[in-house]
Amino acid sequence: MRLRVEFTTEPFDLDETPAHALVAREVVEAAELDAVDVGPFGNTAEGGADAVLGAVDALLRKALEAGATRVSLQVNVIGEGDR
């Protein structure tokens, strides 16, 4: 099964990237995922279910430890043609 996760971390800071956002970016970029798109207001990652779920677990734990007060995420099952 393939999954796509979309997530944001808060609070936002438009002047400087918060530590929790940097940590979240590092987690998804280090995970064994097929695609990662990191942006200022939202992030997307895709891959096999085990890789995505493992990355989500690490992302939640590390972003909260780094000061995130909210992590919003959505996980979708995707087919091979949905990239």
Short description:
This protein is an alpha+beta fold and 83 residues long. The chain is built from two helices and four strands.
Question: What can you see in these coordinates?
Answer:
The chain is an alpha+beta fold. It is built from 2 helices and 4 strands. It has a 4-stranded antiparallel sheet, with helices on one face. Helix 1 runs antiparallel to helix 2. The two termini are 14 Å apart.
Q: How many extended strands?
A: 4
- List the uncertain runs: none
- The structural class is alpha+beta
Overall geometry: elongated
Distance between the termini: 14 Å
- Note the run of SSEs as H and E: EHEEHE
**What is the overall number of helices?**
2
Beta fraction:
25-35%
Major beta sheet summary: 4 strands, antiparallel
Mean pLDDT metric:
92
Task: Describe the secondary-structure layout.
Elements: E1 2-10, H1 19-30, E2 35-38, E3 43-48, H2 49-65, E4 70-78
Antiparallel strand pairs: 1-3, 1-4, 2-3
Helix pairs in contact: 1-2
Any descriptors?
alpha+beta; 83 residues; four-stranded antiparallel sheet
